[in-house]
Amino acid sequence: MAETSDPGPASIQPATVRGTAGFFRVGRTAAGAWWLLNPAGEPLFLRAVNGVHGAEGSRHDPVARLRAWGFNALGPGAAAPLRDEGLPFVADVGFGAAGPVIHFAGARLPDVFDPAWPQAAVARAGAVCLPLAGRSDLIGWLADDQPGWAQPGPAGRPALLQVCLSLEPAFAAYHAAWEFVLAPHGGRLEGLARAWSRPLANKEVVRELTRTEQGLATRGYLRDDARWTREYARRYFTLTAAAIRAHDPNHLILGGRFGGRVGAAVLAECVYPAVDAAWIDLDDLPAAPAGPVVAGEFTWVDGHPAAAPGSRRLAGLTTVERMLRRGRASLQKLARHPAVIGYAWSRWRDGAGEQPPFASGLVHDNDAEAREHTELLADLNGRLESLRKG
Q1: Domain boundaries, the chain
Q2: What are 105-118's pLDDT values in tens digits?
Q3: How many Cα atoms sit within 13 Å of 287 on the Cβ side?
């Protein structure tokens, strides 16, 4: 792994820097380690929390709590008033609110093939980005908060290509998808059926499979789905980046807050120049990322940094101790990874139905501090930059 020591401003290679002077940027050292640079050009390791908000009637200040626990930024989803409390923040544009939008069978995406969508995206970016374009405490923009990419997964779940082939004809993506799959076969459905090793009497067969949640999973289909998803992602990231930069050329573009794994086809297009640093799920972190990344949904709950059950090294520890031991190791590993410029804890408050000490929030429903997480995080946050410096 690349050496990460001496990350001072002088060690950052100027040719690698992305962003505008006086705002947050990213840059890489001669040794190959990426760093987030603050507006003064000083390297730092991002330590954020997603969805931060105060509870009504609470005597606790969320920003003061974050500082006490060693965090240095607000992740996406923070309550707007907290942006004026002195911590840098990440924001999302919410292109999913700009129509036309596909919201069907696990997909929640703009119809990027619709001729009207690029202009709708520019209008959305103008409304959201322009008011914050001059703020030096804004780290960067996410295109959307947890869009749905309908990736191949458990048996029975239709993937993105199948979803698009099953849309109503009013969607441009429907026509683009059918043209995409039929073009190599002279426009003939029989040729596509042979390539997919699946009987296709007519187009309605695909729609009925999707309606009944039967996902196509043959080798030929999955090959086409990967190519289609990559083309969809290329248009999505290119168009959203252009819309943001039309109104705000100052801030970093961070891709999308996926809220889970999206797979290699999407990540292959979530890269520079459309994306300055990719905000991705820890489980999707490539072995050799093409550029800087943020582990944007970090947690040691729910098995994210899972070690093998019954590991001899963890024998004799309680379940909570094993969780925290794995979490410590996982976060320290991130700090040493040359492409990782920071992380964001996935959740501020416990999720519905979660029970401490295995709830994922840093704050419980009764507004009490989740000490099972915060005490270790405070200790680690104070040492992550030193760890990264080698």
Answers
A1: 1-44
A2: 889 999 999 999 99
A3: 0
